[in-house]
Amino acid sequence: MSIKWNLKKYLSKNHGIYTATEFKKVITKQTGVVISLQNLCNLLNSTPKMIRFKTIEIICTALNCTMDAFCQIIPEEKKKKDTEKLSYKNTPLSKRGVHQFPNPSDYR
Question: How far apart (Å, rounded) are the C-alpha atoms in residues 67 and 93?
């Protein structure tokens, strides 16, 4: 799965925000929530490995947008497997159960 995180580009292009400090002021003014400057720098400069939905909600509320404006998730194409359907004919002898049941008369 490929994730394209374009928050910094989106902010500069659509909102004229170029620094984390400006972004922090907008978030605080619009939502009343204070996010640390370090967290905002991390969000602007690299793709997050993990992000809370609440944080995304705060960002989207402050910018009046949806998540797909700055984050796209592109699924990978499925690789076609060249597998053969297992049947009795192509099952290996070791897994076929070729051993016969024991004769009950041998256990008297």
Answer: 55
Name the token pair of 88: 């009795």
- Give the helix, strand, coil percentages of the chain, each rounded to 5: 50, 5, 45
pLDDT score for 78: 76
pLDDT (tens digit per residue) in 13-26: 999 999 999 999 99
Q: Average pLDDT for residues 72-92, to the nearest whole number?
A: 72
Q: Are 70 and 3 in contact (CB under 8 A)?
A: no
> Is residue 64 within 8 Å of residue 10, measured between CB atoms?
no
Task: Give the SS3 label for residue 52.
Answer: coil
Nearest residue to 1 (alpha-carbon basis) of 41, 49, 44, 39: 49
Which pLDDT belongs to residue 69?
Answer: 95
Alpha-carbon distance of 87 to 56, in angstroms, equals 50
Task: Collect all residues with Cβ–Cβ distance below 8 Å to 14 and sequence separation of at least 6.
Answer: 63, 65, 69
Global pTM reads 0.67
